[in-house]
Amino acid sequence: MAEKNPVRWANWFISSDKSSDTRVAFDQIGDKKISTGFIGIDHNFGLKGPPLLFETMIFEGEVRLVAGRYSTWNEAITGHREAISKLTSGMTREELEAAKTIIEPLLKG
Q: Is the pTM of this model over 0.90?
Protein backbone atom coordinates (compact mmCIF):
# COMPACT_ATOMS: atom_id res chain seq x y z
CA MET A 1 0.00 0.00 0.00
CA ALA A 2 1.40 3.40 -0.97
CA GLU A 3 1.99 5.88 1.83
CA LYS A 4 0.49 9.19 0.72
CA ASN A 5 2.31 11.28 3.33
CA PRO A 6 5.94 11.66 2.12
CA VAL A 7 7.22 12.69 5.55
CA ARG A 8 5.69 9.63 7.21
CA TRP A 9 7.10 7.40 4.45
CA ALA A 10 10.59 8.94 4.74
CA ASN A 11 10.55 8.49 8.53
CA TRP A 12 9.59 4.82 8.10
CA PHE A 13 12.29 4.22 5.49
CA ILE A 14 15.02 5.91 7.55
CA SER A 15 14.08 4.12 10.76
CA SER A 16 13.24 0.72 9.26
CA ASP A 17 15.34 -2.32 9.98
CA LYS A 18 16.86 -2.77 6.53
CA SER A 19 17.57 -6.43 7.18
CA SER A 20 13.93 -7.31 7.76
CA ASP A 21 11.68 -4.52 6.50
CA THR A 22 13.25 -3.92 3.09
CA ARG A 23 15.34 -7.01 2.34
CA VAL A 24 13.86 -9.52 -0.09
CA ALA A 25 16.78 -11.97 -0.05
CA PHE A 26 20.49 -12.21 0.73
CA ASP A 27 22.91 -14.99 -0.11
CA GLN A 28 26.65 -15.49 -0.25
CA ILE A 29 28.36 -17.81 -2.70
CA GLY A 30 32.10 -17.89 -2.22
CA ASP A 31 33.29 -14.29 -2.05
CA LYS A 32 30.21 -12.95 -3.86
CA LYS A 33 27.27 -11.50 -1.93
CA ILE A 34 23.87 -11.27 -3.63
CA SER A 35 21.43 -8.83 -2.08
CA THR A 36 17.91 -8.02 -3.24
CA GLY A 37 15.79 -5.40 -1.55
CA PHE A 38 13.30 -2.58 -1.67
CA ILE A 39 15.20 0.58 -2.70
CA GLY A 40 12.50 3.09 -1.88
CA ILE A 41 12.79 5.30 -4.97
CA ASP A 42 11.41 4.57 -8.43
CA HIS A 43 14.48 3.85 -10.56
CA ASN A 44 12.36 4.00 -13.72
CA PHE A 45 12.64 7.79 -13.27
CA GLY A 46 9.23 8.53 -14.76
CA LEU A 47 9.84 6.71 -18.02
CA LYS A 48 7.13 4.53 -19.55
CA GLY A 49 6.44 1.36 -17.69
CA PRO A 50 5.89 0.37 -14.09
CA PRO A 51 7.98 1.77 -11.23
CA LEU A 52 11.21 -0.09 -10.46
CA LEU A 53 11.27 -0.30 -6.67
CA PHE A 54 13.40 -3.39 -6.00
CA GLU A 55 17.00 -4.11 -6.92
CA THR A 56 19.40 -7.05 -6.94
CA MET A 57 23.06 -6.23 -6.46
CA ILE A 58 26.12 -8.45 -6.48
CA PHE A 59 29.09 -7.48 -4.32
CA GLU A 60 32.60 -8.86 -4.67
CA GLY A 61 35.18 -6.93 -2.68
CA GLU A 62 34.94 -3.31 -3.80
CA VAL A 63 33.02 -4.21 -6.98
CA ARG A 64 29.26 -3.58 -6.99
CA LEU A 65 27.10 -4.68 -9.87
CA VAL A 66 23.39 -4.00 -10.35
CA ALA A 67 22.01 -7.33 -11.57
CA GLY A 68 18.39 -6.23 -12.03
CA ARG A 69 15.55 -3.97 -11.04
CA TYR A 70 11.94 -4.99 -10.54
CA SER A 71 8.46 -3.65 -9.89
CA THR A 72 7.14 -6.20 -7.39
CA TRP A 73 8.32 -8.32 -4.48
CA ASN A 74 7.67 -11.51 -6.47
CA GLU A 75 9.63 -10.24 -9.48
CA ALA A 76 12.48 -9.39 -7.09
CA ILE A 77 12.50 -12.95 -5.71
CA THR A 78 12.62 -14.33 -9.26
CA GLY A 79 15.40 -11.89 -10.18
CA HIS A 80 17.39 -12.90 -7.09
CA ARG A 81 17.12 -16.56 -8.05
CA GLU A 82 18.19 -15.76 -11.62
CA ALA A 83 21.24 -13.85 -10.36
CA ILE A 84 22.28 -16.85 -8.27
CA SER A 85 21.73 -19.16 -11.25
CA LYS A 86 23.96 -16.98 -13.45
CA LEU A 87 26.67 -16.84 -10.78
CA THR A 88 26.71 -20.59 -10.31
CA SER A 89 26.55 -21.58 -14.00
CA GLY A 90 30.34 -21.60 -14.40
CA MET A 91 31.20 -23.18 -11.06
CA THR A 92 33.02 -26.46 -10.53
CA ARG A 93 31.20 -29.42 -9.02
CA GLU A 94 32.89 -28.78 -5.65
CA GLU A 95 31.80 -25.14 -5.69
CA LEU A 96 28.25 -26.14 -6.60
CA GLU A 97 28.14 -28.65 -3.76
CA ALA A 98 29.25 -25.91 -1.36
CA ALA A 99 26.50 -23.61 -2.68
CA LYS A 100 23.83 -26.34 -2.60
CA THR A 101 22.52 -25.34 0.83
CA ILE A 102 21.77 -21.88 -0.54
CA ILE A 103 20.31 -22.89 -3.88
CA GLU A 104 17.94 -25.70 -2.86
CA PRO A 105 15.72 -23.63 -0.53
CA LEU A 106 15.41 -20.92 -3.19
CA LEU A 107 14.25 -23.43 -5.78
CA LYS A 108 11.61 -24.75 -3.40
CA GLY A 109 10.66 -21.09 -2.71
A: no
67 in the Ramachandran plot: left (φ > 0), alpha (ψ -120 to 50) or beta? alpha
CA dist., res. 33 & res. 2, Å (int): 30
Provide the CA 84 distance to its chain's centre, in angstroms.
Answer: 11
pLDDT score recorded for residue 67: 87
Contact 99, 105 (CB under 8 A): no
Amino acid at 53: L
Angle between helix 73-88 and 93-108 (nearest 10)? 160
pLDDT digits (tens, 9 = 90+) for 33-57: 999 999 888 888 878 889 999 999 9
Residue 33: exposure state from Cβ atoms within 10 A (0-12, 13-18, ≥19): middle
